[in-house]
Amino acid sequence: MEYADGENTPDSNKMNRKLSHIKKRVSQEFTKSSKCRKWVTWLIHLVGVTVPYAAILVGAIYLDECPANRNIPMHLIVTGVVTAVLHLSTSIDAYRKLSYLKDDEKPAIFTLTSLFLFIWMILGCVWVFGIFVPDNDYGMWNPQGFGYCHKRLYWFAFVFNLAFLVSVVASFLLCCCVCNLLCNITILTCLCYQKTKKGHGDEDASTPVQV
Predict the structure, then answer these.
(1) Which of 83, 122, 192, 205 has a Cα-to-Cα distance from 49 of 20 to 30 A?
(2) Whole-model pTM?
């Protein structure tokens, strides 16, 4: 049986039904997970509101309580301020559509601020982990005798920077998994398309031409 150009063959109809079924399943799973995504969004929003202000508060209270490295309390204060400003700006931009920033200026501002925050956090990790001494019950003492750092201040900064490192590694692994998944889906789609096309070519070659 011959098919005109542009006419759907049984194989193509079968493939279209499979693709439609896959799209339907993906849409259903996406809808089911909307509630979970909503809770995750609110959790991230809550963390974004509380953690920066906690860092500012701890850094301000113990500003002069870390002679071992006076950059640590300042690191917490600057990180908290920049993170709070970023969170507030993105929230206002998402819900109220800022009018005092042009569309071509917002990406540059947010990108530069995020880059500064990333570099600042790396420096904070160097400062905090650089004076780490285990098994100390009365604060962190530098082995070279450079001074004392308040225990609450140090451990807050330690956990704060450790969470940053974990989030960076987790984000990197998630991006790798997503890229790998997209590549596999693309490869499978291409293979299915080539197989279907080859099957149509073999069928056309085996079909006798009627005169």
Answers:
(1) 122
(2) 0.63
